[in-house]
Design brief:
The protein has twelve helices and five strands. It has helices at about 5-10, 45-55, 60-65, 65-90, 95-130, 140-150, 165-170, 180-190, 195-200, 210-220, 250-275, 285, and strands spanning about 35-40, 40-45, 150-160, 225-230, 235-245. The protein has a three-stranded antiparallel sheet.
């Protein structure tokens, strides 16, 4: 039931508080939790009430603690139970549409649970590795890294998939020395949509936060000097260093900690590659199945 109907029922039930006497017929369902009402011999227990109330927002939770609010909320639960009983008596729960919807929900819940379990398992492993020193990072390691890389670099960049096209564009950019001119080329030639839209804007990075194939030449290049093309798995990179800024230790330490953690994680993953068998099935093999 949608939230709008949920809230409307709470408010509308103010005038339909149920009778409090016990049912004249012996109930068909028994429970250890105190029973608050029966609908067609089906109990609404205190446990049912509490579970439903816990799903309310804070203002309604406070409301149902009052005598009037409790009576109105119980009326709402009775209304919901009436609809459920009637739906089942009409056989709605046996229709193909309902069964298909429930099957889809069950599959989604199953997948969500499996995802959550796997996430928790990986998280607990990483926490264990951090505690035992495998991924842990000391203050001394951070300071040593900062001593080597106390700065961040800003570049503009775009990527061209075709190598010949990248070479031709590089020739055209031989004399480019301005950010605006570089941005024009990025918008015209980039195969990467974000660079085409922004003119090649990139967030600044400390060495270790981006691709080493780009970081090293970027660190060694002069400001406003076009570099490229450099080929990575992403394509052919053409870039220009637009700024280099020295950072304070406090500005850099959290980022450096993450860099070192990622480096240690890469090392650990490499050790797992050697420990466990990995086989990648070629797409051509799957295509013939």
């Amino acid at each position: 039931m949608k939230k709008i109907l949920f809230l409307a029922l709470i408010l509308s039930c103010a005038a339909c508080t149920p009778k409090q006497e016990n049912p004249t017929q012996e109930p068909l369902v028994y429970t250890d939790s105190p029973v608050l009402a029966y609908v067609d011999n089906q109990p609404i227990t205190q446990e049912d009430f509490d579970k439903a109330a816990n799903n309310l927002n804070d203002s309604f939770k406070k409301f149902v603690t009052t005598k009037s609010g409790r009576a109105n909320f119980l009326s709402f639960l009775i209304s919901e139970k009436l609809l459920l009983v009637d739906a089942k008596n009409r056989g709605i729960d046996s229709t193909p549409e309902y069964r298909a919807e429930i099957a889809a929900l069950e599959e989604a819940q199953k997948n969500a649970l499996e995802t959550a379990k796997n996430f928790a398992l990986r998280r607990d492993l990483l926490e264990t590795l951090s505690k035992d020193g495998t991924l842990g990072v000391s203050e001394e390691e951070i300071k040593a890294y900062y001593k080597k890389y106390p700065y961040e670099i800003t570049i503009k960049q775009f990527i061209i998939s075709d190598s010949q096209k990248a070479a031709d564009v590089m020739k055209q950019m031989r004399n480019v020395r301005s950010v605006s001119k570089f941005a024009d080329f990025a918008r015209q030639f980039s195969d990467e949509p974000l660079a085409k839209k922004s003119g090649g804007d990139m967030p600044p990075f400390i060495p270790g936060e981006y691709l080493p194939q780009i970081e090293v030449p970027a660190a060694n290049s002069k400001l406003m000097e076009v570099q490229g093309f450099i080929t990575t798995a992403q394509g052919n990179h053409i870039f220009m260093k637009t700024a280099e800024k020295r950072l304070t230790y406090n500005e850099a330490k959290d980022r450096i900690k993450m860099i070192i953690e990622n480096q240690k994680l890469d090392t650990y993953l490499n050790s797992l590659n050697k420990k466990y068998n990995i086989s990648v099935v070629k797409e051509e093999t799957n295509a013939h199945k």
